[in-house]
Specification:
Order of helices and strands: HEEEEEEEHEEEEEEHEE
Strand content: 35-45%
Helix content: 10-25%
Structural class: mainly beta
Number of helices: 3
Shape: elongated
Strand order of the largest sheet: 5-2-1-8-9-6-7
Largest sheet: 7 strands, mixed
Number of strands: 15
Amino acid sequence: MRLFFSACLAALFLVAAPAQATGRQTAYGYAWADGAGRLRITPVSASLTERDGIPFHSLEAIPGARELKLAYGGADFRRLTAECDLKETEGRLAVDRKGLGKTRCTPKDLARRLAFGPAPVRVVHDGTKAVQVREFLPAKYYTRTLRGTIRRVDGDTIAVKGVELTHTWRLTFNRVTATCGAGWLTGKPVNADDDGLGTKGCTSEDFARVLRQVEHPVLAVVTYNPFSRELLSVWEVFGDA
């Protein structure tokens, strides 16, 4: 009787247990470094288009898409630059008819590329392992603008109107103060335009340093990439302008 009961439980478990997804899947999006040999990417919809004979990909958000975290230590990485260690194409594009990078590179080259910031890529993955990573060209420089109070989340992340954004060395910080190192809205606002937006150009390091000293959310205008969630620019706002 005990053996029969155990067999029934085993059969019930096999029927009720959810099947795990198997096989390779493909995701387009902006890949971020996520520790040594790992990346994170939120899938987006990508459609191939062409302009002046150059293939691009138009991007759209996928409602409810969840971020993937993948190990790429054994992945086949292909760049759209002529050489693996170039920051930009330098006028020489290496893509196939589908607009995907052709230059064969290594996982170390991928780590170096991700160190500069998020990269638009197509990732073929099997479970949590990236099998192939290929760069592509977005159809345009995607940006969105928000005006509201920003709150520091950690050293490189802020939140504005419920959206968390990560900033890199590419961030531009536009201040109303006389110096880049001044506290938020401290001193005479000698660098503001007619709309009260800062005009003094500062760096991402200045932004991180100043925001660490702020105890409460502060008003700003920001631009960001809606697909990568990279914070691109911040304008300090003077007063109630």
